[in-house]
Amino acid sequence: MSLAALATDMSMSLRARRVAAVAAEFANQVDRDARFPEEAVNAMKVERLLGVQIPLRFGGESASIEELAEICVVLGQACAASAMVFAMHQIKVSSLVEHGCESPWHMDFMRELAARQLLVASATTEGGIGGNMRNSICAIDVDGNTCRLIKDATVISYGAHADVIMVTSRAHENAASTDQVMTVFRRGQYSLEKTVSWDTLGMRGTCSDGFLFKGEAPAVQIFPKPFAEIAAQSMLANSHLLWSAVWYGIAADAVLRAQAFVRAAARKAPGSQPPGALRLAEAASLLQLLKANILSGLKVYADAKADPDQLSSMAFSVAMNNVKLASSETILTIINQAMIVCGIMGYKNGTPYSLGRHLRDAHSAQLMISNDRILGNTSTMLLVQKPDTSLFG
Amino acid sequence: MNETIRELLAKLGGLPVPVTDLADDADLYAVGLSSFASVQLMLGIEEAFDLEFPDSLLNRKSFASIAAIEQTLTQILNSKEAA
Ligand SMILES: Cc1cc2nc3c(=O)[nH]c(=O)nc-3n(C[C@H](O)[C@H](O)[C@H](O)COP(=O)(O)OP(=O)(O)OC[C@H]3O[C@@H](n4cnc5c(N)ncnc54)[C@H](O)[C@@H]3O)c2cc1C
């Protein structure tokens, strides 16, 4: 890495740290009141983190997925909901960057996003379809230069706070359920009628309410590529890697809290091994496994990006699915270990060792595109795909 | 080969339209080929032609249309002969 690149890299993570300080301050309140983390998201805008992924030529900083993942980790240690808002926004931006660079409307929109730090939300989940995002019931109606869409969007994180929502649908009235497109709708081009409230166990600050979405916009705002390609070539990897980075952040903070607990005990009784020390060592080992899982996923993605055929291959899908499955399961084990280490001080709210929020937030990981659904897809692919058993392959 | 592919597609593709209506270059995913059905189709083809798809050809492009499947198969059969 050149010195100049290192300098911007450092400033990016420094900026993330400043946002994290704000996010940490309000994390408990955001969680308790299930409210949007507006202080943290404003700080992201002030630090200009919402536009970092946009290419330099459109006014962004061409941030890599590695840099984005690092920001997710830093934020995840402070407030999982804020970190997840950042991750979900960047996942949508990745679709623009990967698939919008030849469409004049989408290029202009990227310029504006970077300049004005617009926040982008996502509406893939649909009533009657659930998390099976490669299928839609609703269809977009293209009438001359205008498109119209009505969607029963049962989960749109920060839908009420976003500047933009990207919505999937069938490509036209007669299209098959898998023949989908994604359309960018800007605030003012849609109405949202709240249908379901987001009063959940964890990730409460993502405010992922359900809405009846009704939009009308110029038809040029439809992505020119089929959603199937967008899903396979940018969303799959970006979602699983950036979500995993957020989850790693939650688990890492839990391990730090457990370690602080053990160290405090050790200082009080020098010469004897505190009771939780062994479990802490176990949790640290699992945390390293989780980190390795994400790092190897990032490498697989970097390699595949150089070769479009590989990006749409089964081997790649299986690898990304595996990153998600392993991360979402391992964090629960790690945080549970940390909870056992801290005992009642971890179970209680309002102590320096509290882990209730971490554990509750972490429970969303297995459901965020159900692990059973992902296992089902992988198991189908494994009927023909042969795993690469080499170490560096 | 084209005929066998069409037969298997009709049996395993789960498409909402008759396969006879499809041109060789019709986009099968747009017509409604799901990822589950595409794997079933691959298994059917492996069985019918007694071959195995190498990992490098297991991507969306290889199964995007009847013509693409034919091309993929020809590629595998040729490399089999060469071996
Ligand atoms: C924090 C958070 C934020 C989110 N934000 C957004 C957002 O901004 N936009 C958005 O569109 N969505 C969002 N989602 C929704 C998410 O993308 C999934 O759609 C959702 O979690 C799936 O909901 P579900 O469990 O009701 O549906 P389903 O996927 O239908 O699953 C329901 C149940 O059925 C089982 N099941 C269903 N199908 C299968 C199958 N084929 N094989 C095996 N088991 C199966 C599953 O195990 C599960 O228990 C968010 C979710 C979370 C947790």
Automatic annotation (TrEMBL), chain A:
The keyword DNA repair does not apply. Its cofactor is FAD. Gene3D superfamilies: Acyl-CoA dehydrogenase/oxidase, N-terminal domain (1.10.540.10), Butyryl-CoA Dehydrogenase, subunit A, domain 2 (2.40.110.10), Butyryl-CoA Dehydrogenase, subunit A, domain 3 (1.20.140.10). Residues 19-100 form the Acyl-CoA dehydrogenase/oxidase N-terminal domain. Keywords: FAD, Flavoprotein. The keyword Flavoprotein applies. GO terms for molecular function: acyl-CoA dehydrogenase activity; flavin adenine dinucleotide binding. InterPro entries: Acyl-CoA_Oxase/DH_mid-dom_sf, AcylCo_DH-like_C, AcylCo_DH/oxidase_C, AcylCoA_DH/ox_N, AcylCoA_DH/ox_N_sf, AcylCoA_DH/oxidase_NM_dom_sf. SUPFAM superfamilies: Acyl-CoA dehydrogenase C-terminal domain-like (SSF47203), Acyl-CoA dehydrogenase NM domain-like (SSF56645). It holds the Pfam family Acyl-CoA_dh_N. Residues 232-367 form the Acyl-CoA dehydrogenase/oxidase C-terminal domain. Belongs to the acyl-CoA dehydrogenase family. This is Acyl-CoA dehydrogenase. It comes from Rhizobium deserti.
From TrEMBL, chain B:
Residues 1-77 form the Carrier domain. It comes from the Bacteria. PROSITE patterns: CARRIER. NCBIfam families: PRK07081.1. This is Acyl carrier protein. The lineage of its organism: Bacteria, Pseudomonadati, Pseudomonadota, Alphaproteobacteria, Hyphomicrobiales.
